Amino acid sequence: MKIELVTVGTELLLGFTVDTNSAWIGRALAEIGVHVVRRTSVADTPDAIHDAVDAALARTGAVLTTGGLGPTRDDVTKYVVAELLGMPLRFDDAIWAMLGERWARLGRSLVESNRSQAMVPTGGTVLPNQWGSAPGLWLDAPRGIVIMLPGVPTEMMKLMTHEVLPRLAGQGDGRVIRSAVVRTSGIGESVLAEGIGALEDELLPLSLAYLPGVTGVDLRLTAWGLEMAEADARLADATARLHANIGVHAWGDGDDDLAALLLDALRAKGKMLAVAESCTGGLLGARLTEVAGASAVFLGGVLAYADAAKRELLAVDQQLLTNHGAVSGEVAEAMARGVASRLGADLAVSITGIAGPGGGSPEKPVGTVWMAFAVNGAVTSQRMQFSGDRAEVRARAVQAALFGLWRLVTSANPALL
């Protein structure tokens, strides 16, 4: 089965909103053997929506739209498609009652504009939205299928998962496009490619793509047009072979989060962590506390940006700051010792650096970052040089700290934790 996507929203064209819906939908449909052959974004205008859906139906006979199902004047997708397909709108009492119950639970009252959300094309199937106010719609007309979903990503994904994908699953040809991802850190794209070398040819017919980013290089394996069982088996084998080839730099798969894996490893060993940050401004602590249950092993952190804060909060000696500067191995080590002592942690990491755009020197250019790791009183430090703008340097530093901690905690060396 082939299908086209039409995402509706002037904000998408102006660049105020990034179209993440299409990417998610494309992946979800490929996994059940439904091929997205075109993606189109249009403004919230009747003519633009009409032309996009009309052309898509002429080409493939199947269209999925997102956006334009809300209660405001610019939400016109449903009206345009209903007119295009000759399916007049009717008022649905069941939807209106559901909206009333939802609004009552939220302590709000329905207004007249909400009535538009209870209008559905005659002959269409309502896709109940338990996660928002705009129901999805499935229209099966002589010209083809039109599926309309809300543009709010969380609502769209829930409706796709529970209502749309089960209906579409039986309409594919049994052949799927499936992908697996191996996540790496601490190794550059070119070095990674050199190390993998001839293995790429051995992985055929799977394709291998290198996806560098601020958190490392992801390796995406893709099986094209295979039966589901064969695709999954080949992907599992190739993933294992990549892990064996890459070694310690391969830390996870798929949507794995390094912070979550680190916290799990700490929990398994019963060890407590603390962090001290300067140039990253609390971003490391934020990555850790985004994970539910982090408090079981993460004691907290100290954000010591100014030298005075390093002295007063982390007991960094002024002589170290004077002789070596705040961005140095000596100060990083003192910060790690200080936060471990202050919070009583088994393991601590510190980050101090020059994120830019100014503040660099020939000896310490922008992107210079020192970090130190304290493990049961023993402290080591290392200098790193990161590229990119201020945000990228800070993000790379946080990932490097997490990766360094993860390697320490998961090391087979009994001397480490």
Sequence-ordered SSE layout with sheet pairings:
Layout: E1 2-8, H1 10-14, H2 20-30, E2 35-42, H3 46-59, E3 62-66, H4 77-85, E4 89-91, H5 93-105, E5 119-121, E6 125-127, E7 136-141, E8 144-149, H6 153-168, E9 175-184, H7 189-196, H8 199-202, E10 207-213, E11 216-227, H9 228-246, E12 250-253, H10 258-269, E13 273-277, H11 283-289, E14 298-303, H12 307-314, H13 318-324, H14 329-343, E15 347-353, E16 368-375, E17 378-385, H15 390-409
Parallel strand pairs: 1-2, 1-3, 3-8, 13-14, 13-15
Antiparallel strand pairs: 4-5, 6-7, 7-8, 9-11, 9-12, 10-11, 15-16, 16-17
Helix pairs in contact: 2-6, 3-4, 10-15
Question: CATH superfamily of the largest domain, please?
Answer: MoaB/Mog-like domain
What is the straight-line distance between the termini?
A: 54 Å
- By DSSP, the count of extended strands is 17
> So, CATH architecture of the largest domain?
3-Layer(aba) Sandwich
The level 1 CATH classification of the largest domain is Alpha Beta
Q: How much helix is in the residues?
A: 40-55%
- Helix/strand/pairing class, anyone? alpha/beta
Proportion of β residues?
Answer: 25-35%
CATH topology of the largest domain: Molybdenum Cofactor Biosythetic Enzyme, Chain A
Instruction: Report the biggest beta sheet as strand number plus sense, adding barrel if it closes.
Output: 6 strands, mixed
Name the shape in a single word.
elongated
- The pLDDT mean sits at 94
In DSSP terms (H or I, runs of 4 or more residues), the helix count works out at 15
Rg (C-alpha, Å): 27 Å
Tally of separate domains: 3
Strand order of the largest sheet: 2-1-3-8-7-6
Q: Pick out the low-confidence regions.
A: none
